[in-house]
Specification:
Blueprint lengths: L6 H8 L3 H10 L5 H19 L6 H11 L6 H10 L37 E10 L7 E9 L4 E8 L4 H12 L8 E4 L8 H9 L3 E4 L9 H15 L7 H17 L10 H8 L1
Parallel strand pairs: 1-4, 4-5
Antiparallel strand pairs: 1-2, 2-3
InterPro entries: HTH-like_dom (IPR025948), Integrase_cat-core (IPR001584), RNaseH-like_sf (IPR012337), RNaseH_sf (IPR036397), Transpos_IS3 (IPR048020), Transposase_IS3/IS150/IS904 (IPR050900)
GO molecular function: nucleic acid binding
Pfam families: HTH_21 (PF13276), rve (PF00665), rve_2 (PF13333)
Length: about 280
């Protein structure tokens, strides 16, 4: 507007000191070291955003950048640069489950004590449903076990049928691991976990059974959190609903979750944390 109006009048209108305007005018053409640094950081942010399908938020991106760059970066700076690039992380959807009356219930021995000092001493297991079509009449069922020591998925199995075999096949993987004697395996009150055969099988392998209170998903929060990440970072973003392709994608995601995905409380992936703590 300086071609039509004087600088003095425009500065008065904008309540800006004229010397400050000229200082800004002179500075805007100068590329500072901070500008160069911001450009480099933006390129990395874009790479991370594309690589991980927009599932990394500012805090996780910040940890990632500090690991690969030789400069200290604050999450507020990452947030500002993400806003400038109009980049936002995927927001997870809430999932509500139906309630039912279980056949028999074990005590809640875990009692939300999720802190663990040794691997394979406290485990959480559950099953999640993944729709295979828009009508939600066909599902892929994922049974998974998480080690609370480092949040690693140590056993899992998938099937198009939510039956006893799905859980049994997951347990067979679990029994091949060097579990600590008296290891706690925590589940909800699903029908698969209230069977006498299931309870007896755990006792034979010296595993202590624990169950959530009825209608209280927070008692089994660690595995629920994993399912939430899986769905928001893969399932809701994936276009395929072909069973075999989806199984392959889930296999790849679980490998990524265990080996590469940064957990905020560790600043590294589950397997990296386990190796670091050993």
């Amino acid at each position: 507007m300086s071609e039509r109006y004087s600088i003095i009048r425009l500065c008065l209108l904008a309540k800006v000191v004229r010397s400050s305007y000229y200082k800004w005018l002179k500075r805007k053409d100068i590329i500072t070291n901070k500008d160069i640094q911001d450009k480099i950081i933006k390129n990395h942010i874009l790479d991370i955003h594309n690589k991980y399908r927009g599932t990394y938020g500012r805090k996780r991106i910040c940890i990632y950048l500090n690991n690969i760059l030789g400069i200290e970066i604050n999450h507020k700076r990452v947030y500002r640069l993400m806003n400038e690039m109009n980049i936002k992380a995927v927001i997870r959807k809430k999932v509500y489950k139906h309630k039912f009356k279980p056949a028999s219930v074990a005590k809640n021995i875990l009692n939300r004590e999720f802190t663990v000092t040794r691997p394979l001493t406290k485990l959480c297991m559950d099953i999640t449903y993944i729709p295979l079509d828009k009508s939600s009449r066909r599902f892929l069922y994922l049974s998974a076990v998480k080690d609370l020591y480092n949040d690693q998925i140590i056993a899992y199995n998938m099937s198009t049928r939510n039956d006893v075999k799905l859980v049994n096949d997951t347990l067979e993987q679990l029994y091949n691991l060097p579990l600590k004697k008296g290891c706690i395996l925590h589940t909800d009150q699903g029908f698969q976990y209230t069977r006498k055969e299931y309870c007896d099988d755990l006792k034979r392998h010296s595993i202590t059974q624990s169950m959530s209170r009825r209608g209280n998903c927070w008692d089994n929060a660690p595995i629920e959190i994993f399912f939430g990440h899986l769905k928001s970072e893969l399932i809701y973003l994936s276009k395929t609903r072909e069973t075999e392709k989806l199984i392959n994608e889930i296999n790849e995601y679980i490998w990524f979750y265990n080996n590469e995905r940064i957990l905020l409380k560790y600043g590294m992936s589950p397997i990296q944390y386990k190796s670091h703590a050993a």
